[in-house]
Write a structure and sequence with these properties.
About 75% of the residues lie in helices and about 0% in strands. The chain is mainly alpha-helical. The longest helix has 22 residues, at about 85-110. It is elongated. The protein starts with a helix and ends with a helix.
Amino acid sequence: MKEEALAKYYKDLIHQTPESVKLPAGALAVLDFLTVFINTPLIRVLLRRSFFLVCYAMVSFRKERNYAPLYRLLIGCLLAKSCRSNPKQWWYCMRAAVAFVQARQHHSWATDIDLEDNLIRLGNRGPQPLVGYDVAYVFVGYSLWLFERGEVGTALRMISIAEKADPSWGYPSYLHGWYQLFGSEKESVDYFVRAVHIDWSFLRKMKEDNICREHPQILHEVRRRTLVSK
C-alpha cells in the first residue's frame, strides 16, 4: 500500500514543468544542430553558457524522453561555477532535474539510486539562500526518495527544509503529516492542520487518501481544528 501511495505522490508533485521558450527559426536550427552533438564537451559548454538555451534544451529533451543527454546537461549546469553564482537559476535547474527523474520513475518505474544520491548531495551543498518554490520542490522530491528507502529521519529533515523554503505552499506540510502517520500520529495532526490552513483542498485530499482513511481519528481531529479556527 505504501508503494502505491508514494507513486501517487510522485505524480502529484510533477504538476509543473519548465516552461518552453520561443526562438527565431534561425536560432532553432542552430540549437537543434548543437543538441545533436550534446555529447561533445565543447557543445555542452556552449549550451551551458546560456540559461535561455538550457531551458529550451530541457524542454526539447523532455518532449522526446531523451533522458541521458538531459541529465548530462543538467548535471553540467549544476556543477558549473557560472550557474552556482546565480542561486535562482541553479535551483530552477535542480528542480528540473528532480522533476525529470520523478517523471521517468512514474512512467517506467525505473529507479536510479546513484542519480538520486548525486542530486541529493548536490542539493545539500546548493547555493544559499534556501528560499522559494524551486527549493521547496527539490527537497520534497528528496524526501520522497528517502522515505521510499526507509530513511524516515532524513526524509523528515528534508521535508522540514521544504516547509521553511516556501511557507505559502501547503504540500510540504501535508506530506510531513502523511509521513508522521507511519510514526508519531499525534504530530501528524499539526502538519495536516497547517496544510489545510494554507489550502483547504488538502482536507479533501486527506479524505480521498487510502492511508489517511486508515486513521479516521486523525481526519476527525484535523476537521475539528480547522473548522473551529475558521
